[in-house]
Amino acid sequence: MKHIIIAIIAIAAMGCGVYGSYFESVEPSSKVDYPGFTKVTAEVDEYRKKRLISSRAFAQKALQKDVIVLDTRSKSAYDRIHVKGAVHLNFSDFTKASLAKMIPNKNTTILIYCNNNVDTPNPALMNKGAPLALNIPTFINLYGYGYKNVYELKDMITLKDPYITFEGTDVKSTVVKKTTNRHQEARAQTLMKLY
């Protein structure tokens, strides 16, 4: 009987050692999955090429129903200057929950742009290194979170673009007929430019 009790204790002790090392080896040191990221990036590569659009097409799509123009720059940069009618969600705040709150329908058409699309000396739109342009991680993340109806502005534009209008504290005020809806106002101004 004494031998049986010793054997049970030995098995229990080995079991604790086995389970202890099992959990140590499976628990990740962080929730970072670089191979997963590179897989999503490779998947997005060809898809994104078909989703790069001109400033005219961008402005036309912005006028359609169930379309959102998304600005993912910092809040201070957004407040200073952004595409008229754009909504803001800082890229560093992207989570499944924050995206679902802002864009509940994953089939919504999402238009994105960043500093690297605008040629201006304005510090709020200062260009970054081309391979590090904010459009790239924004597109990849939206796609990775299941938002597959994304279009990206491909053109380099100026603040006097014939199709895209800007607003914010750094934009000189112009007299515009007031409407009850900010998006209607932006769309009306864009329509005037298009036609």
How do you describe this structure in short?
The chain has 195 residues and is of the alpha/beta class. Helix content is 44%, strand content 11%. The protein is globular.
How does this model look, in words?
The protein is an alpha/beta fold. The chain has one domain (34-194): Rhodanese-like domain (Oxidized Rhodanese, domain 1), CATH 3.40.250.10. 44% of the residues lie in helices and 11% in strands. The protein is built from 7 helices and 7 strands. The strands form 2 sheets. A 5-stranded parallel beta sheet has the order 1-6-5-2-4. It has a two-stranded antiparallel ribbon with strand order 3-7. Helix 2 (34-49) crosses helix 6 (135-144). Mean pLDDT is 82; it is low at 3-25 and 174-180.
- Characterize the biggest β-sheet: 5 strands, parallel
Q: What distance separates the N and C termini?
A: 96 Å
And the CATH topology? Oxidized Rhodanese, domain 1
**Alpha plus pi helix count:** 7
Query: What structural class do you assign from the helix and strand content?
Result: alpha/beta
**Dominant shape:** globular
Counted beta strands: 7
Identify the CATH architecture.
3-Layer(aba) Sandwich
Under CATH, the homologous superfamily reads Rhodanese-like domain
* Strand and helix order: HHEHEHEEHEHEEH
Average residue pLDDT: 82
- Which ranges are low-confidence, i.e. pLDDT below 50, for 5 or more consecutive residues? 3-25, 174-180
Strand order of the largest sheet: 1-6-5-2-4
Q: What is the percent of helical residues?
A: 40-55%
The radius of gyration is 25 Å
What is the total number of structural domains?
Answer: 1
